[in-house]
Design a protein that fits this description.
Blueprint (H helix, E strand, L loop, with lengths): L4 H11 L13 E7 L15 E7 L20 H14 L3 E3 L9 E3 L1 H14 E7 L3 H12 L13 H18 L1
Antiparallel strand pairs: 1-2, 1-5, 3-4
Helix pairs in contact: 2-5
Length: 178
Amino acid sequence: MEIELDDVVACLRETHCFIDELQAPSEAGIYGVFACFPGILAPFPVGNDGLIYIGVSSNLAERECEHHFSSDRTGFSTLRRTLGAILREKLCLVPIPRSPGSRGCVYRFESEGEDRLTDWMRANLEVGVCCTGDPKMVECELIALLKPVLNLTKWQNPHRKEIKRLRKQCADDAQIQK
């Protein structure tokens, strides 16, 4: 059975809610992260429907997308690191290495900052889910079609260079914190 991208998009838009309210099935699928307010990521644009990120999950009920919204095991979510890099000054976030001896762009934020980032995300972002038979293929097609500003691959994101610069700045500052 071939999935219609329009159906997946409609499903994501119809189901999005705050993460604590999310009712997800135990199936593979796509999740979309939506900004609740326009201009919230300025200077980066948020589309009319607020979609800012698309991800894939092997089991939506296990809430693989929820790790983005948790202060536990931080530094493993590229979405969190990107949001943190964008909101760094606003939320007073201090980047530190994700773990002792980590190198490169592997960073997280000090615990209090991680909590502020989590609180901000839970107050300002929503998640929608849609079951799909081949989520990785659908994810690639959706990203190319919808062009979410925080997806840095699978489309020619005009903001990629600036977002990568902000993330590198956090990574560099984390190495100084060692």
